[in-house]
Each structure stands twice: as C-alpha cells, then as structure tokens.
Write a structure and sequence with these properties.
This protein folds into two domains: about 90 residues, Glutaredoxin (3-Layer(aba) Sandwich); about 110 residues, Up-down Bundle (Glutathione S-transferase Yfyf (Class Pi), Chain A, domain 2), CATH 1.20.1050. About 50% of the residues lie in helices and about 10% in strands. It contains eight helices and four strands, in the order βαβαββαααααα. It has a four-stranded mixed sheet with strand order 2-1-3-4, with helices on one face. It binds glutathione.
Length: about 210
C-alpha cells in the first residue's frame, strides 16, 4: 500500500519526512496541504488529519503519525535505513533530531516565514533580528560538528542529517548563506548527491511562485 504524506513544498518540516521516504525507496505519495489558505487551522484538518494542526502527517493504511522526527523513525523501522549502527549512534541521532527541532529548524522555519511569507508591513524587525542571532549560533554549532566529518553521526546518512537539512536548501533569505559555512556547504552537497535526492520544491507540491 502506498504511504501518503500530508505536506507542502514550503515546509522544511515536511521535507525532512518526504526526503526520508524518498531516499528510503518506500512507495509513497504526497497529499497537498493548502497551508497558505489556512488548511491546518480548519476543524476538519484537526479532527481528521492532525489535532496539532501541523504538517507533515504520514498515513500508512490505518496508521497515522505526525512530527517529522517520529515519521523518520517510522521510515527507519520500515525500511531499515537511516538508523545508527549501534545503540550509542541511535541516541546520538535522537540528540541531533531534538536539537534540530528546537534550535535549528524551528528558528529557520519561523524566521523564513516572517521574512518572506508575511506581508511586508507586518514583518517584525526586532523579532527577526533576535532570531537571526540565534540562527547564526545554531549554524556555528552544526558547522563545527561537521569539521572532518562526512555525516552528522557515523559513516552514512542518518535521520540526524535528514532532520538538520530540513530548511537549508531553500532559496528564500533567512540568514543562511552556504558560502559562510564551508562544512555545512560540503555536507549539503554530499546529501544532494544521494540517489533519488530532490529539492523540496521538486519533491512536494506547492511553492511560492504558485501564489505569485
Ligand atoms: N516539530 C514539528 C513541526 C511541524 C510544523 O511546525 N509544521 C508547520 C509547517 S512547516 C506547520 O504545520 N505549522 C502550522 C502552524 O504552526 O499553525 C515537526 O517536525 O513535524
């Protein structure tokens, strides 16, 4: 049975789940979430798709799961891919997924939204400035960790990589310039060379130009 992923192209959190599915080789298809027209805020979405009002959401037969990190763990259980080689590595992957959700992707996603998708007269300069400082610190942590390493944990692609990259291929400004972070830049290139890799706007339905 084909796995369904409720997602949309602008969503880096959705990308983490979509990329895990895509690179795993599991049979899956996207289901478009019309986020910019308020789909996740409707009572129907909350009742039928996700009480948390978020994307991504995976549906595999009668099994439904939200939270990109949980979906990645499910993909690992089902495909045998992107987990650690040891118990220690598995804890290390979880550590990076939690760090990403808290310090990197949540901040990047929010800042990108404020800087690009809010109407210009509603963009809060102080909040954006504060977030950019927090983001710079997060890029620094990741770049330092990747010094001398191909992957965040162990010798191959894991959910740590698939989580931390969630927002980093998007072209809209959110205080991230690959040229400033050479280890992140090389790692993103390595990841994009994996068979089946696609850019978020090519992997999931929905992109800013659809609303232009
Ligand atoms: N920690 C969650 C975050 C999910 C999330 O915030 N998704 C955004 C889209 S990128 C969303 O649906 N936001 C709806 C809202 O906050 O109202 C995950 O990793 O799945």
């Amino acid at each position: 049975m084909t796995i369904k992923l409720h997602c949309f192209g602008e969503s880096g959190n959705s990308y983490k789940a979509a990329l895990a599915l895509q690179l795993s080789g599991l049979d899956w298809e996207p289901v478009f979430v019309d986020f910019f027209n308020g789909a996740t805020r409707t009572p129907e979405y909350r009742a039928e798709v996700n009480e948390m009002g978020e994307a991504p959401v995976l549906v595999d037969g009668d099994f439904t799961l939200s939270q990109s990190g949980c979906i990645q763990a499910y993909v690992t259980e089902k495909s045998g891919k992107f987990g650690g080689a040891t118990r220690e590595e598995n804890y290390d992957i979880l550590r990076w997924v939690l760090w990403d959700n808290h310090k990197l992707s949540s901040m990047a996603g929010m800042t990108r939204f404020l800087m690009n998708f809010l109407p210009e007269d509603k963009r809060p300069a102080d909040v954006i400035g504060f977030n950019l400082g927090r983001l710079k610190a997060a890029y620094g942590v990741l770049d330092a960790h990747l010094q001398g390493r191909d992957w965040i944990v162990g010798d191959g692609v894991t959910n740590a990589d698939l989580s931390c990259c969630g927002y980093l291929y998007y072209p809209e400004p959110f205080g991230f310039d690959r040229a400033e972070w050479p280890n992140i830049d090389a790692w993103l290139t390595r990841l994009s060379e994996q068979p089946g890799w696609k850019h978020p706007y090519d992997l999931m339905p929905g992109k800013p130009s659809d609303r232009a």
